[in-house]
Each structure stands twice: as structure tokens, then as C-alpha cells.
Design brief:
With 111 residues, this protein is mainly alpha-helical. It has six helices and no strands. Helix 1 packs across helix 4. It starts with 5 loop residues before the first helix and ends with a helix. 14% of the residues are buried.
């Protein structure tokens, strides 16, 4: 299988999602979600998260991949609606790299 860079995919999707902000909701699923607002987007993220959990419990690798892709896609829509980029999340993950999860969580609760 050909190697696909995660950053390349995320950047292309991010650009596409930005373009969809000005698309016709009648012609674009993503534009339709944007038009419905953040609450509808969050509902989709929640639905996809639940479906991902169910797939993981079932143990079928293809279903896990499919549902995780749906979850990530809708999460990217949520980020774009909030005027955030995948890079913002990647930067936060990089910041946490090497930190103890317990220490990182404690540092957030101190703020």
C-alpha cells in the first residue's frame, strides 16, 4: 500500500472544508451542516463517536477504520466551524508529547 502522509490528507481536507463554507447547502453535505450550525455538527460528532465505540467493541477492524474516519471527518468540520485548523490540534499533541498524562491534566486544572 502506498504511504499517505497524515499532514497532506489533513491539509487537503481542511482546505476543502473551508471551501465548503461558501458552498450551496443544497449541493454540499458539509455546507448543509455548516448552515445548520454548531449544535448540528456536534450532534454528528457525538453520533460518530458512539458508532466508533460500538465498532471497536465489535472488534471488526474494517468497521473500526470506517467509523473512525467518519468521526475524524466530522471533528474536522467542527474545527473548521470554530475557525480552527487540524494544525492547531497537532501543535497541542506535540506540546504534550513526552509529558505524563497525569501531569498534563493537572496543569490544565490549575488554570
Amino acid at each position: 500500500m502506498k504511504y499517505i502522509s497524515m499532514n497532506d490528507v489533513l491539509n487537503r481536507l481542511s482546505e476543502l472544508l473551508e471551501q465548503r463554507k461558501s458552498a450551496d447547502p443544497a449541493a454540499s453535505y458539509v455546507a448543509k451542516l455548516y448552515a445548520k450550525g454548531m449544535d448540528s455538527i456536534l450532534k454528528k460528532v457525538g453520533e460518530e463517536a458512539t458508532e466508533t465505540v460500538i465498532a471497536a467493541k465489535g472488534g471488526n477492524k474494517q468497521e473500526i477504520i470506517y467509523e473512525t474516519a467518519d468521526l475524524w471527518f466530522h471533528t474536522l468540520i467542527m474545527l473548521a466551524k470554530a475557525d480552527l485548523k487540524p494544525q492547531d490540534v497537532l501543535d497541542e499533541l506535540a506540546r504534550r508529547e513526552g509529558l505524563s498524562g497525569i501531569a498534563e491534566k493537572e496543569s490544565r486544572s490549575e488554570k
